[in-house]
Amino acid sequence: MPTLIKMKQNTNGEMIFGESDLCDLIMQGRDVTKMKMTIDPEIDIEGAIQVLEDPAGMLALWTFPSNSDISVPDWDSIQQSNWHMPDKYKQLDIAEHVLGLCSTDAELQRVGQELLLFQDRDLFDLLRYLHYLVDLMKANNVIWGVGRGSSVASYVLYLLGVHRINSLFYELDPGEFLR
Is the pTM of this model over 0.70? Predict the structure, then answer.
């Protein structure tokens, strides 16, 4: 049975189970709802259990219904409200966070321009989720690609670590990504 290596301890020495620990326990077939444990308060345990216990059901939620009267933007909005991420990311002022990553006036201007484009398309939740996803991948030593396609035209995504192509340096038009 795999050991749990990512646990933290509180000031009393009690082990605090994180998201990876809980997923490992669930995948091992353990019923974590009946275990006596301290869970990191940022963890959405019910959401994690639901995804792991019924991945097909969750996939059905994410699949666009082809015979439905719902519009694509409405469907996207519903799906974004179901994203599993800690509250600290859901409540993050993503614009302030990304602007805080800038160090020059040119960067601030480019990020401001892109943030307006993201805001016009109601994509701030997507940016929050991508920030969470990158942090989660870094914490778990997951390797992801350098970047591909039109996403590399976004300097905001570069700052969040989604890709490693500095679109400001290469003078890539953000309109190529957010058309």
Answer: no
